[in-house]
Amino acid sequence: MNRFRVLLFVLLLLGLVVGCSSGTTTSGKMEVQDAWGRTSPMAAQNGAFYMNLVNNSSEDDALKSASTDACDVVELHEMYMMENDVMGMRPVQGGEIPVPSGQTVELKPGGLHVMCIGKTADFNVGDKYTLNLEFAKAGSMAVTVDIRETGEMPANMNMEGMNNNDGMGNMEQNGEDMGNMNSGNGG
């Protein structure tokens, strides 16, 4: 009986260690690794989330949408280089992020990312938020996003389809103020 208790204890302890050390969430054969977001004070109206999407299946998939209670609107965005070495940000073409079979797609600063428009909370170091992801084939997946310290965005950034009203980085999309995009609160 004592051996059984010891074995059970070791197995439970092992499960706890493995569960706590993993930054991976899995749905079927789709994995989301290392989900994190930028710090961003409440005065900054927007934020961004990043992660690795790993497709371990034999079929192509795609991230179709995302949602969280931490944002009024969540969109899938990409950064791109415009004329005169100015970076731009726009919703992804086709409205989804492809995740080819057997490949990893990295959502990172300066590239693909999940854009949080209209934050409902401060994004402070150590905060955690649930981000709900919807994949074309893997279905729904809830991941925990850790807020981390990050640097500021490039000053040479412009957003396609967004109006820069005052030349100081204060952005507007579809007539709604999006805050100062040069203060580390997006992309």
Characterization of this structure:
It is a single chain. By secondary structure, the protein is mainly beta. It has a single domain, classed as Sandwich (Immunoglobulin-like), CATH 2.60.40.1890. It is built from one helix and 15 strands. It has one helix at 2-21, and strands at residues 24-27, 30-38, 46-55, 61-67, 71-81, 87-91, 97-99, 104-107, 113-119, 128-135, 139-148, 157-159, 162-164, 170-173, 176-180. Strands 1, 2, 3, 4, 5, 6, 7, 8, 9, 10, 11 and 12 form a twelve-stranded mixed beta sheet that branches. Strands 13-14-15 form a three-stranded antiparallel beta sheet, with no helix packed on it. The model is unreliable at 4-22 and 152-185 (pLDDT under 50).
The assigned CATH architecture is: Sandwich
Task: Write the H/E string, N to C.
Answer: HEEEEEEEEEEEEEEE
**C-alpha termini separation:** 57 Å
Approximately how much helix is present in the residues?
10-25%
CATH T-level fold name: Immunoglobulin-like
What would you call the structural class? mainly beta
How many E-type strands? 15
What radius of gyration results from the CA coordinates? 19 Å
* Number of helices, where a helix is a run of at least 4 consecutive DSSP H or I residues: 1
Categorize the overall geometry: globular
Largest sheet: 12 strands, mixed
In the CATH hierarchy, what is the superfamily? PCu(A)C copper chaperone
Any idea of the CATH class? Mainly Beta
The average pLDDT is 77
**Uncertain segments of ≥5 residues (pLDDT<50)?**
4-22, 152-185
The fraction of residues in strands falls at over 45%
Total individual domains: 1
